[in-house]
Amino acid sequence: MSERAEAKRVTVLMGGASAEREVSLRSGAAAAKALEEAGYAVALVDVGRDPAALVQFVTESRPDVVFNALHGRFGEDGCVQGVLNLLGLPYTHSGLLASAAAMDKAFSRRLFADAGIPVAAGAVVRRGEPSPLPLPYVVKPLNEGSSVGVYILKAGDNRTPLADWPFESDEVLVEEFVPGRELTVAVMGDRALGVLEITSERGFYDYEAKYAPGGSRHVMPAPLPPEDYAEACRLAVAAHRALGCRGVSRADLRYDDTVVGAKPRLVMLEVNTQPGMTATSLVPEIAAHAGIGFPELVRRMVEEARCDG
After folding, report:
1. 211 is catalytic
2. Are residues 144 and 170 in the same domain?
3. In this structure, what CATH number is given to the domain that contains residue 18?
4. What's the domain range around 156?
5. Which of 57, 158, 170, 302 has the fewest Cβ atoms surrounding its Cβ within 10 A?
């Protein structure tokens, strides 16, 4: 480690006020520990709803780089990125525009489709309107992460999520349910680090399956035919580029191999511009399989940090 890297001060933003606050606190604590192991001087900031307080805390910590470990609204949707741009501070992960585009599921779907990346059939529906799709289908908030508020409606299900469930927005995204397997691909820069398969006894990779101990099982590398593994990597990098992401991102896909005799189908679900950094998180696991340990992973993220301002 050079003297320059050893002296670099990194402020870690974590917590926030979104539905993913607890996950962000764990991500921030894990990233801070790894950054200290990598030789950086680290300060932690638990971010609330007050942007003036955020500016004060960040300014007082005098960082060379900000490590953004926030998840969900305000931290992942371009808002914090805009504040850091105004402060002229380099920060990890994607910039304002890519962060906002990726967080808006309806908008990112259009970008993916325009780039030739396959997406599930779907539409934005206002609260109370009937679904334009037959069962089974998936209902998603337009701008939440970590599967917060995501529901699968199957045949015989009597729930009416478009009318009854308390989404903050008046609009939700309705998508066809794509059967098959859950895949995720970590991308660093312009390179896919690998494809991991996620299985869960819950039958759906929801919030609890993602973050509760034992909630899911990870298979790395994903057991796919070589050509499909390569295609999943290609699509993840293409989605990263279509959004204008930088640094590290994680693409979630479905792999439908359920039709006997048919070619398996890969479908892009979303790109996470602020992937989790907890003990059960996917990007560190994929990176480790690629020979990149956690301290080295966060070191690379810090050294590649930029400011859009």
Report:
1. yes
2. yes
3. 3.40.50.20
4. 122-176
5. 158
For this structure, is 146 an active site residue? Answer: yes
Residue 199 burial by Cβ neighbours in a 10 Å radius (0-12, 13-18, 19+): middle
Query: Are residue 206 and residue 165 in the same domain, yes or no?
Result: no
Summarize pLDDT for 152-185 with one digit per residue, the tens.
888 877 776 666 665 667 788 999 999 999 999 9
Catalytic residue at 94? no
Q: Residue 158 class from Cβ within 10 Å (0-12 exposed, 13-18 middle, 19+ buried)?
A: exposed
- State yes or no: pLDDT of 204 exceeds 60: no
Is 252 an annotated catalytic residue?
Answer: yes
Read off φ and ψ for residue 195, nearest 5 degrees: -115, 130
78 is annotated as an active-site residue: no
> Known catalytic residue: 276?
yes
Let me know whether 85 and 16 are in one domain.
yes
**Whole-angstrom distance, CA of residue 3 vs CA of residue 7:** 6
Residue tagged active-site, from 99, 143, 272, 281: 272
Choosing from 211, 216, 254, 300, the catalytic residue is 211
Q: Which of 15, 16, 20, 94 is catalytic?
A: 20
Residues 212 and 110 in one domain: yes
The mean predicted confidence, pLDDT, of the chain is 88
Domain shared by 110 and 222, yes or no: yes
